[in-house]
């Protein structure tokens, strides 16, 4: 498995790179393949199931995920470039989510249970996917990152009350590092 590049780190809330615009991927080259391998390695190392490029400080439309969260199950790995949601199912599901950019914060998020997605692979070929249940949830969470949207934007007011002190802690840690 590829090593993550020295210095490649998870960007933590409220770093502005998590809210920045993400540029489409145009060059499907070895550099892109290497970036996706390093992101997957970092995702596994941090026990994540998905990672979006802005979360490693690269503001491009690339996401990697593996709903199994296990590098031994690499057949479940997905690398999606320039993904688009073509269809969202009407049926919703609610489940607790976490985010590598928000250590220690988990809460329930409602999302469509099904999405149909178009994306390009590492060679630039257009692919279509039907994602359901947990896989659909992981995809939608990562896709939100490409839109500069974070899971805290989807909190209910009640969840907000619970989570606000934890967010304030991350904000104060960020100011300390800056
Ligand atoms: Co996230």
General description of the model:
It is a single chain. By secondary structure, the protein is an alpha+beta fold. The chain has 3 helices and 7 strands; from the N terminus they run H-E-E-E-E-E-E-E-H-H. The protein has helices spanning 30-45, 133-146, 157-177, and strands spanning 50-52, 62-65, 78-88, 92-97, 107-112, 114-120, 126-132. The strands form 2 sheets. Strands 1-2-3-6-7 form a 5-stranded antiparallel β-sheet. Strands 4-5 form a two-stranded antiparallel ribbon. The longest helix is centred in the C-terminal third of the chain and has 21 residues, at 157-177. The radius of gyration is 16 Å and the shape is globular. Cobalt (II) ion binds at residues 99-101, 141, 145. Residues 99-101, 141, 145 line the site of cobalt (II) ion (CO).
Q: Structural class, please?
A: alpha+beta
* Count of β-strands: 7
What fraction strand? 15-25%
| Termini gap | 33 Å
Bound molecules: cobalt (II) ion
| CA-based shape | globular
User: Average pLDDT, to the nearest integer?
Assistant: 95
Strand order across the largest sheet: 1-2-3-6-7
Q: What sequence of helices (H) and strands (E) makes up the elements?
A: HEEEEEEEHH
Give start-end ranges of low-pLDDT stretches. none
How many helix segments? 3
Main sheet specs:
5 strands, antiparallel
Radius of gyration: 16 Å
Helical content, roughly? 25-40%
């Amino acid at each position: 498995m590829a090593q993550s590049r020295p210095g490649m780190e998870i960007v933590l809330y409220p770093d502005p790179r998590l809210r920045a615009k993400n540029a489409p991927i145009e060059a499907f080259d070895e550099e892109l393949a290497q970036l996706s391998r390093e992101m997957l390695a970092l995702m596994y190392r941090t026990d994540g199931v998905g990672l979006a490029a802005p979360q490693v400080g690269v503001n491009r439309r690339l996401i990697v995920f593996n709903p199994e969260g296990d590098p031994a199950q690499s057949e479940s790995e997905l690398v999606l470039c320039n993904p688009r949601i073509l269809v969202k199912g009407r049926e919703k599901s609610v489940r607790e989510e976490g985010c590598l950019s928000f250590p220690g914060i988990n809460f329930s998020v409602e999302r469509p249970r099904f999405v149909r997605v178009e994306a390009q692979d590492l060679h630039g070929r257009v692919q279509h996917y039907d994602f359901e249940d947990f896989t659909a949830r992981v995809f939608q969470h990562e896709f939100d990152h490409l839109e500069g949207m974070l899971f805290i934007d989807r909190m209910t007011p009640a969840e907000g009350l619970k989570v606000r002190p934890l967010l304030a802690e991350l904000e104060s840690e960020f100011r300390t590092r800056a």
